[in-house]
């Protein structure tokens, strides 16, 4: 029997150990393009993206390109994204595609083919997905991820205040929706070592979450650091004992230091140092 691809969770753990756990989001907002002296067009998008990948591709564990900022330029924007995925991989960074997909199971398998099948042009190490059509609707993506050594990050407790009305809603059995999603993730990660491949997105902005069991044996993506007001020092309060599984994510907080390569590297290094100090 031939061994399958190395699971995402194992690859992520190694990258976090070697490079530190920081994830830098590639979010080419029109306002950032302007601040960098670039036009809000495909050439500006390509220049911005290449600069970030070249500056940080050998420094950070994970890049999280935000698909919408590429999609807004149509097929030529997607081509820039494909190139970025390839160039980031050459530099050893993992790609978490932030496309927040979620649909009925039969359509979910098409999304899974687009992002999680090894021979797809947009094959990513992991994908953000929304479980709000029911966790079971994500099954084709879970299966495709397993087959291809990829992973998922499921929206659990998001960093924005509006998320609470759905995620903290309490079900008939007394459990919140978010707690239910975390339970499904723990089941999908059961028995995996050193870390499961199915993560939750849990905002670093949320304060004490001790009411939730975050011990899902999988990674916890923590956006909200930097522009949304959270800092690495908040991580122990939010994540408690699970803080070692946290992948802190920063987009604008790093990107606003560009286009100077040295300044981008220094900004990412500062966040990484603060994370190391906070997490130990
Ligand atoms: O899934 C995400 O990445 C995500 C989930 C969440 O709860 N909150 C959140 O801000 N994000 C994403 O994380 C990034 C945050 O960007 P900054 O606020 O610029 O660091 C954006 O790409 C958001 O879409």
From TrEMBL:
<comment type="pathway">
    <text>Pyrimidine metabolism; UMP biosynthesis via de novo pathway; UMP from orotate: step 2/2.</text>
</comment>
<dbReference type="InterPro" id="IPR011060">
    <property type="entry name" value="RibuloseP-bd_barrel"/>
</dbReference>
<keyword id="KW-0456">Lyase</keyword>
<dbReference type="InterPro" id="IPR001754">
    <property type="entry name" value="OMPdeCOase_dom"/>
</dbReference>
<protein>
    <recommendedName>
        <fullName>Orotidine 5'-phosphate decarboxylase</fullName>
        <ecNumber>4.1.1.23</ecNumber>
    </recommendedName>
</protein>
<dbReference type="Pfam" id="PF00215">
    <property type="entry name" value="OMPdecase"/>
</dbReference>
<comment type="similarity">
    <text>Belongs to the OMP decarboxylase family. Type 2 subfamily.</text>
</comment>
<feature type="active site" description="Proton donor">
    <location>
        <position position="100"/>
    </location>
</feature>
<keyword id="KW-0210">Decarboxylase</keyword>
<dbReference type="InterPro" id="IPR018089">
    <property type="entry name" value="OMPdecase_AS"/>
</dbReference>
<dbReference type="InterPro" id="IPR013785">
    <property type="entry name" value="Aldolase_TIM"/>
</dbReference>
<dbReference type="InterPro" id="IPR011995">
    <property type="entry name" value="OMPdecase_type-2"/>
</dbReference>
<feature type="domain" description="Orotidine 5'-phosphate decarboxylase">
    <location>
        <begin position="21"/>
        <end position="267"/>
    </location>
</feature>
<keyword id="KW-0665">Pyrimidine biosynthesis</keyword>
